[in-house]
Amino acid sequence: MYAVIFGREGCPYCVRAKDLATKLSEERDDFKFRYIDIQKEGISKADLEKTVGKPVETVPQIFLDQEHIGGFTDFEAYAKAHLGLYE
Questions:
Q1: Is residue 33 predicted with pLDDT exceeding 90?
Q2: Which of 26, 51, 61, 73 has its CA 20 to 30 A from that of 15?
Q3: Which residues, 6 or more positions from 83, have their beta carbon under 8 angstroms from its beta carbon?
Q4: Cβ proximity of 74 and 16 under 8 Å
Q5: What are the angstrom distances between the C-alpha of 83 and each of 48, 56, 72, 78, 86?
Q6: How far apart are CA 8 and CA 6, in angstroms?
Q7: Tens digit of pLDDT for each residue in 44-72?
Q8: Where do the domains of the chain lie, and which CATH numbers do they carry?
Q9: Which of 3, 2, 6, 4 is nearest to 60 (CA)?
C-alpha cells in the first residue's frame, strides 16, 4: 500500500498523519508513504481540490493507493480497521 499525504507545516493533524504513516511503514513491509508539503511545493487549495475531486477545507488530504480517503481521522480509522493499527 502506498499513501500520499498532502499537508502543510504547522498543521497538528498533518504531523499526526505523518507520524502514523511513519509508524505503519516501520511495522509493515507492505506500507510506504510520501508526505507532500503543499506550501513548499507551491500547491494551491484549488490544485488540491482538482486532485481530490471535491472542495477541500482542511489538510491533510490523504490518498491510499491513489484513492482519496480523507483527512487524519479517516486515515486513522482506516488503519485501525484494515492495517492492524492498535494504539
A1: yes
A2: 51
A3: 1, 24, 28, 31
A4: no
A5: 26, 26, 15, 7, 9
A6: 7
A7: 989 999 999 999 999 999 999 999 999 99
A8: 2-82 (3.40.30.10)
A9: 6
